[in-house]
Amino acid sequence: IKETTPVAPLNPYPASKVATEEIIRWQAATGALGAVVLRIFNVAGAVNGYADSDRTRIIPKTVAVALGHEMELMINGDGTAVRDFVHVADVARAIELALDACQPGMHDAFNVGATPASVRDIIDATTRLSGRKVRTTHRPADSRESPALIADTRRIRERLGWQPEQSDLDTMVQDQLRFARS
Prior knowledge:
By secondary structure, this protein is of the alpha/beta class. Helix content is 40%, strand content 21%. Strands 2, 6, 8 and 10 form a four-stranded mixed sheet that branches. β3 and β4 form a beta hairpin. α2 packs parallel to α4 and α2 crosses α6. The termini are far apart.
């Protein structure tokens, strides 16, 4: 997905993001402020012992199931849907670079993603790193769900010099495991 890819929100959540970006773009056009929008894909990992505790998200939920804090992981379809993940520390670095680049009257948008992974990849990594099986149950696939949503991050890499440093899947899952065990 490029920053220039046309958007067609399927529900109010992405529609609200599109509307907010438009408001920001119009405000920046006045010249009173500058704006850099970061389109951050799925954030994971931990910093200083703090991680995501929201078990509605795939990595915290999968880890919770592996550690016995949840009964099972419900999977829509066969687990091959791919999403893009990025470590919270790499997101923080993208924010720093965006703030440094922001100038009055300027508006830009950048994708922030790093590691495409399927649900099955996350389950496999969690099983391997925790030494515990992740119990799963499958539901029918949602026909509206895209098989892959992967960020094209060339623009942020070229224009802001951003590079993910901690966004490999094992690091993000291991961070979540450490957080969930503490």
